[in-house]
């Protein structure tokens, strides 16, 4: 007559264990989903940065190899800071390709250096360059700004 003294505690314990395992499983899936989104965002940001860096190097190459770097200036009357502040970088392009990028070269700035012991002065030209790159999404945009030295002002065509 053992069957009459049992109360069904095994069923209750099994159901509690099942609920506990379900909660742990949902928690693990949620954490995995969050980590996957974080990884995808990092990947998109990295693509955007690499595209911007590539465009910056291309602008540098063009400035250093051009006979007249002043001819490469995009819009002399516009402050390059306006380009950096713009949120529409690349939005006018029809293609939303990964890694799409471009650069802007601003008007040169002249810096004059005086020799310490002599009266010789050297004028150096620096061109501001802003480069942008877009990652896999429109939110993943990197903007890099750099001053590129091209030599003296006479070499730069001024």
Description:
The protein is α+β, with helices and mostly antiparallel strands. It has one domain. It is built from two helices and four strands. Strands 1, 2, 3 and 4 form a four-stranded antiparallel sheet that branches. A hairpin with a 6-residue loop joins strand 2 and strand 3. The longest helix is centred in the first third of the chain and has 57 residues. It is rod-shaped, with a radius of gyration of 30 Å. About 4% of the residues have low confidence.
Percent of sequence in beta strands: 15-25%
Mean pLDDT: 77
User: What is the makeup of the main sheet?
Assistant: 4 strands, antiparallel
- Taking Cα atoms only, what radius of gyration do you get, to the nearest Å? 30 Å
Structure described in brief:
The protein is an alpha+beta fold and 158 residues long. It has helices at residues 9-65, 80-85, and strands at 101-105, 109-114, 121-134, 141-152.
Summarize the SSE layout with pairings.
Layout: H1 9-65, H2 80-85, E1 101-105, E2 109-114, E3 121-134, E4 141-152
Antiparallel strand pairs: 1-3, 2-3, 3-4
What descriptors fit this protein?
158 residues, alpha+beta, 4-stranded antiparallel β-sheet, 2 helices, 4 strands
């Amino acid at each position: 007559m053992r069957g009459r003294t049992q109360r069904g505690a095994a069923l209750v314990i099994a159901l509690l264990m099942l609920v506990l395992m379900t909660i742990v499983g949902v928690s693990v899936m949620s954490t995995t989903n969050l980590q996957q989104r974080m990884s995808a965002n990092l990947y998109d940001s990295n693509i955007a940065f690499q595209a911007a860096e590539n465009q910056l190097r291309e602008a540098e190459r063009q400035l250093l190899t051009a006979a007249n770097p002043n001819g490469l200036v995009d819009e002399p009357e516009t402050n390059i800071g306006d380009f950096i502040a713009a949120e529409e970088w690349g939005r006018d392009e029809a293609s939303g390709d990964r890694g799409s990028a471009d650069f802007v070269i601003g008007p040169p700035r002249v810096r004059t250096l005086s020799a310490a012991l002599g009266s010789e002065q050297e004028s150096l030209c620096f061109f501001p360059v802003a480069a942008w790159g877009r990652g896999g999404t429109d939110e993943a945009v990197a903007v890099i700004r750099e001053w590129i030295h091209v030599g003296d002002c006479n070499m730069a065509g001024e």
